[in-house]
Amino acid sequence: MPKKIYVAKSGIHGNGVFAKQDLKKGEIAFIMKGKRYHKVNHGKKDTFSHPDWVGIEKDTWIDPGGTPLQNINHSCNPNMGIKGKVTYVMLRNAKKGEELTFDYSTTEEDMLWEMKNGEKKVPGFRPVIKSIQHLPLVTYKKYLPYIPKYLQKVYNKYHHLNSHGQKN
Asked: What is the average pLDDT value for the chain, to the nearest integer?
């Protein structure tokens, strides 16, 4: 298990990942590990056939199954983002014992994917979580630069934005 985290019962859903120590904004919390898969989804059944997988680039996924990282919960007000493809970095300070979360939308491009949000209402709460293309622009910009580059390109293309999040 990564030295900065532990798994415990979550107030969001099932188990969650928590900070073993205070973590500072910009600090690496952990690096996502797991088996990589290349898979193209062909419809809704495919889209939902791998619920714990984390998208890292086009049709490429990491399955964190069997690691503590399979317990990371979603939040619309996350304290982590992703640097590169697999490095989870703190978006803000987190206290020892705080649950570590990220916005699942930042690792999903499949327009068919969605999930009901089980967290209690937080700033920016969205009752249904969908792929990155559906993130509000203000939320997208708040997470930058901690969204995988490939998914930034997906968002920018969908919204006709340049690489700085400005309309073309």
From this structure: 92
Residue spans of alpha helices (H) in the chain: 44-47, 137-143, 149-158
CA distance 33 to 16: 16
At 31, the amino acid letter reads I
Domains of the chain: 5-158 (2.170.270.10)
Residue that the structure tokens 């990589």 belong to: 36
Backbone dihedral angles phi then psi of residue 77, each to the nearest 5 degrees:
-130, 65
**In residues, how long is the chain?**
168
Per-residue model confidence as pLDDT tens digits over 14-43: 999 999 999 999 999 999 999 999 988 888
Rounded Cα–Cα distance for residues 85 and 24 (Å)? 20
DSSP assignment string, 5-35 = EEEEE-SSSSEEEEESS-B-TT-EEEE--SE
Nearest to 24 by CA among 118, 90, 119, 114: 90
